[in-house]
Design goal:
Aminopeptidase; 6 helices; 191 residues; alpha+beta
Length: 191
């Protein structure tokens, strides 16, 4: 498992198809100060259902309706598939060996860079874990995945999420509707 060092001068490594096809993606675990970031697995199903079934977690999404168990299971399936296809994706975020959320980097249609997203269980809100995760994810995006940019989309009323992205070095780029609702686009380019 690799620890995250926020030194911007770290060398960039590139993944090869050989490593991805060999299951290397399953070893893509990272450690922040308090979190372990690991690829999701089928055993995370109950936690996905718990987190994405909570109204307060989804309140700022374009569709704020809590997900039914089948929708959450489909979310987990898509997350695992993204890892299998791309060699990276949304991690299960563990705190003291307990999954407390999911967050990661994914491809988003219409963007050349990677999209960052995160959803934490309300029990751990207010502890700085979202910021800790986001800062580490941006380092991974540029250092390990050679991303050209990282973007984040938030609803204007989600001020806390905007602050998390700013702490990770993303800047407000402007209005950007998504999911049929007003949104804000945050971005950080890799120079």
């Amino acid at each position: 498992m690799r620890s995250i060092n926020h030194d911007a001068n770290l060398p960039v490594s590139r993944f090869s198809n050989l490593l991805l096809n060999s299951g290397f993606w399953q070893m893509m675990e990272f450690r922040t100060e308090r979190l372990t970031l690991r690829p999701p697995r089928e055993g995370d199903q109950a936690t996905v259902i718990e987190i994405f079934g909570r109204a307060e977690v989804l309140a700022h999404r374009p569709d704020p309706r809590p997900e039914a168990a089948a929708e959450a299971q489909e979310r987990l399936r898509r997350d695992i598939e993204h890892w299998q296809v791309h060699g990276f994706g949304r991690w299960a975020l563990e705190l003291d060996s307990r999954v407390v959320g999911f967050g990661g980097l994914t491809h988003r249609a219409g963007f050349t860079g990677l999209s960052i997203s995160y959803h934490l269980h309300p029990d751990v809100w207010g502890q700085g874990l979202a910021s800790e995760f986001a800062q580490s994810a941006v380092v991974i995006a540029f250092r390990d995945l050679s991303a050209k940019s990282v973007i984040g989309l938030v609803r204007p009323v989600n001020i806390a999420s905007g602050r998390v992205l700013e702490k990770a070095g993303l800047k407000l780029a402007g209005d950007f509707p998504y999911g049929g609702h007003p949104g804000l686009l945050y971005a950080r380019l890799h120079l």
